[in-house]
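Bug #77: duplicate submission created two jobs. Keeping one. Sequence:
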Amino acid sequence: MFKQVVFGMAAGALISAVHGETEGTDQGRIAELERQVQVLSDAFQLQQEMSVAETMDLRSGFRFGGYGDIHANFEENGKSVFDIHRLVMYVGYDFSDWITLNSEIELEHAYVTDGAGGEISIEQLYADFQLADSFNVRAGRMLAPMGIINHAHEPTLFFGVERPSVDKYIIPSTWSIDGVGVFGAPFGWLNYQAYVVGGLDGSAFSASDGVRGGRIKERGGLNAPAITGRIDLFPFDEQDLRLGVSAYYGGTDNANKGGGSGAENNFGMYSADFEYTVSRLQVRGVVALGDQSDPENLPVGVGEQIFGWYLEAGVSVMPESWMSGKLVEADILPFVRYEEFDTQHKVLDGTVKDGANDRTDITVGVNLPLTQQLILKADYQFKYSKAAADPNNTFNLGMGWAF
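Kept job's structure:
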């Protein structure tokens, strides 16, 4: 606006000069003044076009997206609930062709207030410095490179309404970590990640939920930091088989906002996973073991070791003749998943194991992707434990999306 005013004043002054000196002034001087007005007009037009181009260039660096899911869970002889489980908004920005920023902000359970169970958090916020295919730097808040769900947590990428129990009670997905590290793909058949990050809060571990409560979601503790990383191998050129190994090791004497929690202990987790696609069949599995160095410094009953594994398979059964019109991207994927997990796999001498923490889930269901970005799901979970009474079986319905 300021530039427009300046231009208007300058042009007005020149025009006034032209009219004021028209009488008794030769035609050459008038023509020169008119030329100067045109030069100013052209310069202003060019400046406006450059400003628009610069604005559009700035906007072109942004990337937007998100994911979310809505569930209905019906427990046998228990509670039934409708749950807007999560809504996640993604914003990224490309500062240049080698520096990018990525972020995810998550709202869980629709409403955040004391006692409501809802939560809003920054799940990821990190910058990538892409130096070469084989070596890059990442800094900020990212997801721990453990298991499958941490790096494939969008609802369109996994079977079932709820994430696997192993990826909740053994590997605490999604597991945000704060730190810095490196990643790359030095060969077409190998990817790697390695980070130095803040550690867990061992005072929040529990016998039933394992280390899940020890994630620090506000201001990560660096009193006893940790290291974590993974390697993924692709043995075949088609990359239809992926084999992964991952590890985490660090102290648990960390508290939110810094300082120690008093839980002087080291926690290590070691995991292997795979994904294999052949024709219409998809198979994947995970195994993970967690180990505490000094469980006597943790809350009573916390397992010296936690352990879990699962194996699942799904197959596309939708006839190709149905994949047309509105259903051109649709599919029908029945699946089954078997998992065992025990948050008291090994306990201190003198500690009585609770059979309720040694659990088995069998999930049978179907995924119905309507497009690549929106999916409907239904499953039934048979739940068992070594306690006197089994957990309630659950029927689940869900809708998820990612864009």
